[in-house]
Amino acid sequence: MIEIRDLHKYFGALHVLKGINLNVQKGEVLSVIGASGSGKSTLLYCINGLEPVQQGRVVVDGIDVHAKGTDINRLRQRLGMVFQQWNSFPHLTALENVALAPRIVKGKTRAEAREIARRQLEHVGLGEKLDAYPSALSGGQQQRLAIARALAMEPEYMLFDEATSALDPELVGEVLETMRMLAEEGMTMICVTHEMGFARDVSDRVAFFHQGVMEEIGPPEQIFTAPQSEHTRKFLANVR
Amino acid sequence: MFDYNFHWRPVMKSLPDLIDAAFLTLQVAVLAMILGIVIGLGLALVRMHLRGLPRWLASSWVELARNTPALFQLFFFGFGLGAFGLHLSPYIIVLAGLTFNCAGYLAENFRGGFQAVPDTQIRAARSLGMTAWQAYSRIVIPQVFRIVYHPITNQMVWAVLMSSLGMLVGFRELSGETQFFASRTFRIFEYFAVTAVIYYVIVKLILLGSRLLAARLFRY
């Protein structure tokens, strides 16, 4: 379980997250929606410790992410992350992209790591592209590569930071399909997204962020058909 | 039109000595480059990550190496230190001067290389549980190496050509050796023409080797 308690985050004087409280259960799919700058991506970075926090706690399976003694590199193995700019490693083939972390972080042998990588790449539909370099892959393929790379660490949770926002429109579908597949397999997921269709169909809950505050959280039907907050209503009216 | 008779025979007779001197040129240039790459990388990292005196020293090195004549840098290690009673051998003077110069130029190449790799690459690596060092050594450095590969080749060529300044501090590398024979035989034009060809061949071989190596190293 991921527990977030009274989380505050500042970038200098800018108060980006203003006291977030949130629990995400095992097996749950949570979509986080809201305007740009509302703090939703920052929330993900605080969950896996890529950004320090100024107040409050994030606890993953009982381990405080930001506590002094926490082995953050070990904890991050539980938290797969997929970025908006897919960030494939350009100097490595698809297979090497995926096999690297299992080998050097988890200590798998070269053969084991390659086997894991091959399986994960086939899983996301890139079985034909094992030896391709990222420059030879489309944006959608690179993003699926990034998903396979995160999955290869066998994470308990997957964090998606606007995984489809940087993609050409015709490539969005294949990535959403992969995310949907993961959700059906029971992966716990937090998806920061602008894809309202995905949020509505796939999530168990949807959270709406507005100016660093979690305005509203609830089942998709409630958020999309009967939003309680005025801000949520306005946002949804604008994105449709 | 002009009454000058070419005499190639003396040059041909001393060709083996010139070839030997060419290897000395290559040796000192390669050594200066190896040292220059290590020091240049260090200077770039110091300038990017440290503050205060270390950064000031590194910046001064780069500024002096890039903004003063290479010959003066060589003279500093020769006559400059000599004035303070520190007498280095011509070989060491040339090696030190070339290294000083190459490190300064390479530091700027490395700095540009590091800046060209986006921070998001490090974030992605760290999100997979890699340590900062693993992210640096496995993800950042290989990409930087590719970016600075061709500038390093250029610098290698420059080091070979610049080593010819060695003759002005009494070093008998290819130019020094040529000067030595030329002044003994007065076949100045002939000697320097042949030496120019030798330099040209060395540089061409370096460029060819570099291209072949690049094709093997960089498949992406």
Automatic annotation (TrEMBL), chain A:
Gene Ontology cellular component annotations, sorted alphabetically: plasma membrane
Domain of life: Bacteria
Compartments in which it is found: Cell membrane
PROSITE patterns: ABC_TRANSPORTER_1, ABC_TRANSPORTER_2
Keyword Membrane in record: yes
Main location: membrane
Membrane topology: Peripheral membrane protein
The entry's keywords: Amino-acid transport, ATP-binding, Cell membrane, Membrane, Nucleotide-binding, Transport
Domain ABC transporter per the UniProt entry, residue ranges: 2-236
InterPro entries: AAA+_ATPase (IPR003593), ABC_ATPase_HisP-typ (IPR030679), ABC_transporter-like_ATP-bd (IPR003439), ABC_transporter-like_CS (IPR017871), MetN_ABC_transporter-like (IPR050086), P-loop_NTPase (IPR027417)
Keyword Kinase recorded: no
Coiled-coil ranges per UniProt: none
Gene Ontology MF terms: ABC-type amino acid transporter activity; ATP binding; ATP hydrolysis activity
Protein family: Belongs to the ABC transporter superfamily.
Record's protein name: Amino acid ABC transporter ATP-binding protein, PAAT family
Organism this protein belongs to: Ruegeria intermedia
Organism phylogeny: Bacteria, Pseudomonadati, Pseudomonadota, Alphaproteobacteria, Rhodobacterales
TrEMBL record, chain B:
Record GO terms (molecular function): L-cystine transmembrane transporter activity
InterPro entries given in the database record: AA_ABC_transptr_permease_3TM, ArtM/GltK/GlnP/TcyL/YhdX-like, MetI-like, MetI-like_sf
Keywords (A to Z) from UniProt: Amino-acid transport, Cell membrane, Membrane, Transmembrane, Transmembrane helix, Transport
Pfam families found in the cross-reference section: BPD_transp_1
GO cellular component, one term: ATP-binding cassette (ABC) transporter complex
PANTHER family assigned: L-CYSTINE TRANSPORT SYSTEM PERMEASE PROTEIN TCYL, MEMBRANE COMPONENT OF AMINO ACID ABC TRANSPORTER
PROSITE patterns, per database record: ABC_TM1 (PS50928)
Membrane topology: Multi-pass membrane protein
Organism of provenance: Ruegeria intermedia
Primary subcellular site in the record, as a coarse category: membrane
Compartment list: Cell inner membrane; Cell membrane
Similarity remark: Belongs to the binding-protein-dependent transport system permease family. HisMQ subfamily.
Protein name: Amino acid ABC transporter membrane protein 1, PAAT family
Domain ABC transmembrane type-1 intervals: 22-207
Transmembrane segments: 21-50, 70-88, 191-214
